[in-house]
Predict the 3D structure of the following.
Amino acid sequence: MASAGDQAALINEYNGVIVASHCMNAAAVLYLYNWLITIDQEVEYFWKGKVTGAAILFYLNRYISLASFVISLVDWMPMTDKVRNRPSPFVADCIAYSIYSFAVELVPYVPWAAFAGLRCFALTHGNWVLASLVFMLSLVPLSVNLVYFFYGITGENIPLLGCSSVDLTPVGLSDRFALVSRPSLILADCILILATWLTLARRATFRPSYRETTFTSVMLWDGALYFVVLLALNALHLSLTLTSIDVTDLQDTSLVGFFTDPLTSILVQHFLLRLQWANNTSNGSETGAQGDETTSSIVFDRVIGSIGGSLQPGNHDYADHCTDELSIEDSVMDSVVS
């Protein structure tokens, strides 16, 4: 007969799994809701245009994440944790499901890292060294999480909850993984925030407004908001992970991680949608400004698309900007293509 202490530990562990399951479902529903309400914008800004690097990143980020969250919602299906002797061919393998779902969760880090690296490349006017650094820092969580496959990932059927993934990595080692992965993302976010503000600070006469529809205003306000929010989420995730105590193998050290990934994907989607919207709006607007009116040029390269647009605010004519910067942008993109 189990002691009172064992029963209390079991109840605490079961409660942690229930909370984690609810958080995972809430994160999936949040992402699916955002996906549904932005389908019309996707059709308008990406389906009707040419295929660019920005469009490819948008599709990869949007639909890989969609697959990941849809998979996370089917753990209630009948599954067995027995490798052999399945009760029915229609009963899924809980262990295989756990491994597959964990692998799919890691794939979005690739387009997120590419997005961060390309933004840094555009903001720093083609600085490959800094862009590569941001790209590699953003890939650290993917590399760290691959270690879980070394220790092993399995699945267990829990009554009322269905199949739950369980990694066999020691809890203390998982905390060390957070010490490596989250600071790398925080550093990448800090670099991008500084690059955004330093690039625009060089133009002392430029004062963009959030209500403007220019490419530069979108880069400033939306870009800064995106990286600040992600910086806060990663910092919160790291702090809660390091301060968590008395966690068991089936419990998560921090529940913030369930919402970090969907919010990252959602923010990247909205940022790319806003860039495409600014591109379409600017292409249909007037091509110049007179007197002291501030203007900004928008140059979209033929490979990266809106994500690689250059920022050149100032008090000059739009046509002059486009003529001068097109040759610069072409030379930069020639090096990218080659």
